């Protein structure tokens, strides 16, 4: 590739001149507005949560006499979430503001961190103030408009496939009444269910479908690594949310009601469960900006394939060992009770020893199964290298050994040419 070609490619994918200056200025203005809005909303949010607490202050054994600790805990969890999203967005901006996709990602993180409305309702406390509803709706629109468009652009910055342009436009139009039409006849939540739910489900499906098509047909090796980081983080968030929701609902069956109503819980115990669930959800969502930072700034810092393999391996292993443990304890407890007529701690000891004995053999079997099923190419390469190691230990003929080495290199690395130089 000639120097002129490299220069042209760089100019096409990076902002320069007045475009770069305008993009940076617009980003800084939005970031400053977000920070100022947050600082103004914090006292209002504190007062709002204090009023919610006053309705259930009758149970000081659960919430304490003043409730200040619980209010501070809720506000701190919201600040941590917003701070991480704004911080990662600022970091990407400082490092890669000349890259359009990186700049858009940093803008999306800032907007989503403060304006998503669902995970961090902090600036929603401004709505009773003059102009507060418009400010809240504007940041909400910025959050969901950038978030919905992001999945059609990442990681290359181009719409792939072409129909995603239409999908992005539909999302953009939906975000207008969704944020600015709340409480009016244009409110999207008042649409007929036969229209609203199918439309939303179809639109949500456009995100993973577009990413799969891009990954399989268009993405380069580096872009696939970037995509893996983001998809891995989102998968962990989805699994974690399902687990947190199940645990929270088991602890307090009213949790889904408070989530849908968007109002404060009616009892002290429900308030503790609700704020605890929100905090766990916010901490879980912090995986997303971290994945974006690794994907865009240092996508090669860790081997994402190794992280995914280890997650699958130990996730399946933990689940199987937990099933074996509880099954063994239940069965042995019943047998010992039938034989001795009383409960015994021996069942717990035997089950623990069984888990210790099964750990390594089961881990190896799970690892081999996952490698064969999901990482076949790397698994085959490892098998080839293992066989070559055995051959090298037993082979004494140098010519035969070099021939085997050439074959192994060709099979595992697939180079254009292979040559071996032996020093006399």
Provide structural commentary.
- By secondary structure, the protein is mostly helical.
- Among the domains are: 3-219, no CATH class; 376-424, no CATH class.
- The chain has helices at residues 3-13, 17-54, 60-63, 68-96, 100-115, 132-153, 164-180, 193-217, 221-251, 255-261, 268-285, 287-296, 304-340, 346-374, 376-394, 398-413.
- Helix 2 (17-54) packs antiparallel against helix 4, helix 4 runs parallel beside helix 12 (287-296) and helix 6 (132-153) runs antiparallel to helix 7 (164-180).
- The longest helix has 38 residues, at 17-54.
- It is flat.
- The model is unreliable at 1-12 and 299-304 (pLDDT under 50).
Task: Based on Cα principal axes, name the global outline.
Answer: flat
- Please bin the fraction of helical residues: over 70%
Uncertain ranges = 1-12, 299-304
Structural class: mainly alpha
**Over the alpha carbons, how many angstroms does the gyration radius reach?**
28 Å
Question: How many β-strands, per DSSP?
Answer: 0
Task: Summarize the helix and strand pattern as letters.
Answer: HHHHHHHHHHHHHHHH
Task: Describe the main β-sheet briefly.
Answer: none
Mean pLDDT across all amino acids = 77
Count, helices: 16
- How much strand? under 5%
Q: How far is the N terminus from the C terminus? A: 38 Å
């Amino acid at each position: 590739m000639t120097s002129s070609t490299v220069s042209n490619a760089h100019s096409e994918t990076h902002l320069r001149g007045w475009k770069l200056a305008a993009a940076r200025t617009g980003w800084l203005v939005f970031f400053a507005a977000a920070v100022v809005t947050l600082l103004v909303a914090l006292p209002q949010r504190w007062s709002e949560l204090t009023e919610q607490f006053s309705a259930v202050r009758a149970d000081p054994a659960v919430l304490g006499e003043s409730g200040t600790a619980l209010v501070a805990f809720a506000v701190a969890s919201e600040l941590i979430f917003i701070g991480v999203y704004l911080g990662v967005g600022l970091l990407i901006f400082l490092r890669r503001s000349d890259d359009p996709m990186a700049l858009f990602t940093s803008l999306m993180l800032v907007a989503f961190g403060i304006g998503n409305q669902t995970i961090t309702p902090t600036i929603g406390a401004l709505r009773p103030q003059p102009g507060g509803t418009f400010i809240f709706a504007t940041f909400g629109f910025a959050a969901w408009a950038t978030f919905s468009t992001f999945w059609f652009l990442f990681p290359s910055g181009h719409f792939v496939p072409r129909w995603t342009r239409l999908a992005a436009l539909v999302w953009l139009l939906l975000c207008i009444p969704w944020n600015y039409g709340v409480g009016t006849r244009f409110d999207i939540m008042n649409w007929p269910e036969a229209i609203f739910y199918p439309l939303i489900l179809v639109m949500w499906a456009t995100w993973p479908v577009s990413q799969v098509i891009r990954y399989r047909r268009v993405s380069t090796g580096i872009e696939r690594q970037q995509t893996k980081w983001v998809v891995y983080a989102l998968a962990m968030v989805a699994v974690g949310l399902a687990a947190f929701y199940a645990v929270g609902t088991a602890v307090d069956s009213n949790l889904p009601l408070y989530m849908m109503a968007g109002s404060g819980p009616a009892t002290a115990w429900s308030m503790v469960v609700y704020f605890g669930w929100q905090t766990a959800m916010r901490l879980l969502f912090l995986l997303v900006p971290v994945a974006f930072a690794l994907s865009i700034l240092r996508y090669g810092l860790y081997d994402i394939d190794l992280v995914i393999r280890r997650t699958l391996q130990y996730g399946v292993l933990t689940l199987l060992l937990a099933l074996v443990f509880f099954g063994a304890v239940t069965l042995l407890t019943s047998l010992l009770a039938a034989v001795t007529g009383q409960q015994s701690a021996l069942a717990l000891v035997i089950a623990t020893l069984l888990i210790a004995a099964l750990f390594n053999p089961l881990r190896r079997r799970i690892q081999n199964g996952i490698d064969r099923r999901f990482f076949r190419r790397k698994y085959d390469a490892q098998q080839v290298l293992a066989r070559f190691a055995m051959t090298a230990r037993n082979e004494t003929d140098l010519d035969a050994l070099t021939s085997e080495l050439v074959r192994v290199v060709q099979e595992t690395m697939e180079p254009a040419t292979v040559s071996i130089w032996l020093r006399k």
